[in-house]
Write a structure and sequence with these properties.
Elements lengths: L12 H22 L13 E5 L2 H16 L5 E4 H7 L9 E5 L7 H14 L10 E7 L2 E7 L2 E4 L3 E3 L20 E11 L10 E4 L2 E5 L4 E5 L13 H14 L8 E11 L6 E4 L5 E5 L9 H14 L12 H4 L5
Parallel strand pairs: 1-9, 7-14
Antiparallel strand pairs: 1-3, 2-3, 4-5, 5-6, 8-11, 8-12, 9-10, 10-11, 13-14
Helix pairs in contact: 1-6
Length: about 325
């Protein structure tokens, strides 16, 4: 979900500047990607719909709507009838909705295949299922990485290991990104491809629903502080199904296609960690929490500019790892 608007919460005003910029970069990012990959990542621009099932939900939704509108986010308030007109299969009890025309979606799995194809086309080399155990440094400069006990020499290392970014040895305390895994359980249902129940991404109380081109309907996601435990739980899956059923009762007839869990790479302030470090040649691109795909274009631009030209773009300056180091005890 490329949802810079409806996902913005109080306290994320500075992050909104970055997510909004990256959201605007997505069309060019895809255009450039298409030059080196024939994969179609299925970018969809129908927009996103946030719904309220009852009056209590509507009160909370109105508060969020006013907060986001005051930040300049382009949103439209809808009554129950207008909301159901956009999505006829919604529960008749829906009382209100908020429509965001700028919050789009992309198929993240197909996007990864496209990026892989483009990378290989540019003569990049991918080592799958290969663990990097250490980063080798000397005189506060990167010298290489240790893979399977051997040193691969390099001038630049980008820490982009997601929720595992702080598990690599060889870094000083100031350069270990404070990133932890925040678990999310999800499932996928199977709609009729030619007559799907939904066209828009739907944000509902306690769940979101994302329709895909192949008829899949993604339902997610739990938020759990449970380390790297990948287990699916009855309670987690039940809560997602119940929340989505309250919005679209017809989903009870849909087959379950897939269930899985993932780990959001989350920093202490839920914002990404980007840019240079005190170790020369060590670059951060991690801690994106729930916005990794959304922030891909701006992250790629910033990291490329830093490596190629030695410059930190102004939009990522507030997200340096240095913002955490004032609290480190020496």
């Amino acid at each position: 979900m490329l949802a810079a608007g409806v996902e913005c919460e109080p306290g994320e005003e500075n992050l909104l500047k970055l997510t909004t910029l990256s959201q605007k970069l997505w069309p060019k990012f895809l255009h450039d990607l298409s030059k080196d990959s024939k994969q179609n990542p299925e970018y969809r621009n129908e927009g996103t719909l946030v719904v309220a099932i009852n009056r209590d939900d509507a009160t909370r939704l109105e508060f969020t709507y006013n907060f986001q509108k005051n930040l300049g986010i382009n949103l439209e308030w809808l009554d129950g009838y207008e909301t159901r007109k956009l999505e006829p299969h919604l529960n008749p009890s829906i009382v209100a909705g908020v429509y965001s025309s700028n919050d789009h979606q992309i198929n993240n799995r197909l996007l990864m295949r496209s990026l892989e194809e483009a990378f290989v086309h540019k003569e990049g080399i991918i080592h799958e299922y290969t663990e990097v155990t250490d980063i080798e440094t000397h005189n506060e400069s990167v010298k290489g990485i240790i893979v399977d006990g051997s040193l691969i020499e390099t001038d630049v290392v980008i820490i982009a290991a997601g929720a595992w970014s702080n598990n690599i040895n060889g870094l000083t305390k100031e350069c270990i990104p404070p990133v932890r895994p925040v678990k999310g359980q999800m499932l996928s249902l199977k709609m009729e491809q030619n007559s799907p129940l939904l066209k828009h991404v739907i944000w509902a109380p306690n769940a979101y629903l994302v329709p895909r081109n192949d008829g899949s309907l993604l339902v997610g996601a739990t938020i759990e502080e449970n380390g790297f435990n990948p287990d699916l739980t009855a309670g987690g899956i039940f809560s997602l199904l119940e929340a989505s059923w309250r919005v679209i009762p017809n989903i009870e007839e849909l087959p379950i296609k897939e269930m899985w869990a993932g780990f959001r790479p989350t920093s202490r302030d839920d914002a990404p960690i980007l840019g240079a470090t005190k170790i020369k040649g060590l670059v951060m691109a991690t801690g994106h929490h729930r916005n990794g795909i959304l922030l891909a274009p701006v992250t790629a631009n910033a990291v490329s500019e830093l490596i190629l030209n030695g410059e930190t773009t102004k939009e990522v300056e507030p997200f340096s790892i240095e913002r955490f180091n004032n609290n480190i005890e020496h």
